[in-house]
Amino acid sequence: METLAHLAYRWLALDLSAAQQQAFQRYLEELLHWNQRFNLTAIREPEAILTKHFLDSLSVLRVTGCLNGRRVIDVGTGAGFPGLVLKIGCPFMRLTLVESVNKKAAFCRHMVAVKVWVGRAEDLGHDPAHREQYDWAVARAVARLPILAEYLLPFVRLGGAMVAQKGENGPVEVQAARHALEVLGGELEHMQGLTLPSITETRYLIVVRKRAATPALYPRRAGIPAKRPL
Ligand code: SAM
């Protein structure tokens, strides 16, 4: 099995230190262990976890650059993807995780001393301690882009950006999100396609820059963004 360090270097031009490699090894072991009791991830093969979870999450650094010193929020992190992986990659980033399912949040807390908020993004998005406070808001596999933008953009400071990790549907979702981005104060900056080993579909990193304050009305009540997307 190719090591994560080799994969990260070959596919993302990232150098992982010995300490980072150890942290990823522990993450892998704990994920496999917890997964026997709780369904944290459907991907259970160690090799697949390295590529489909760790490497794919690290790919966010291709568009953000090094995140040390930056305030980052990961919405719907599940078992820590991409947020916890990015924290191992950039240990000095200031990370907040948001996850509505308790046991997944508990796993993230068990892994690293990070702030984990258990609840819905729609609620936290109105808290002044979090609203428009982040340099980056990130998410993977949480919702279609028009919905996701309503979850993420309220957290982003003016001039900051959100990154949505998407599969082959990325370009179609960007088209569908045009109205939502305009309403929420976002502007599509960049869409980077990339291929990763043993992931057959093209992956897309969609970067939306915050150009204007998000109107106070958004995000709407929990559940409404998904029920009535902008
Ligand atoms: N991001 C992780 C990944 O890529 O493996 C988890 C993806 S999982 C399919 C989606 C996660 O988002 C779930 O754990 C769910 O509980 C959480 N989630 C969905 N909508 C949410 C919301 N509005 N606020 C907070 N968490 C949410």
Overview of the structural elements:
The chain is of the alpha/beta class and 230 residues long. It has one domain (67-227): Vaccinia Virus protein VP39 (Rossmann fold, 3-Layer(aba) Sandwich). 40% of the residues lie in helices and 24% in strands. It contains 11 helices and 7 strands. The chain has helices spanning 4-12, 18-37, 46-58, 61-64, 83-89, 102-111, 121-124, 145-152, 170-176, 178-184, 224-227, and strands at residues 71-75, 94-99, 115-118, 134-140, 156-166, 186-196, 199-210. It has a 7-stranded mixed β-sheet with strand order 3-2-1-4-5-7-6, with helices on both faces. The model has no long low-confidence stretch (mean pLDDT 96). The structure holds S-adenosylmethionine. Residues 75-78, 81, 98-101, 104, 120-122, 140-142, 151 line the site of S-adenosylmethionine (SAM).
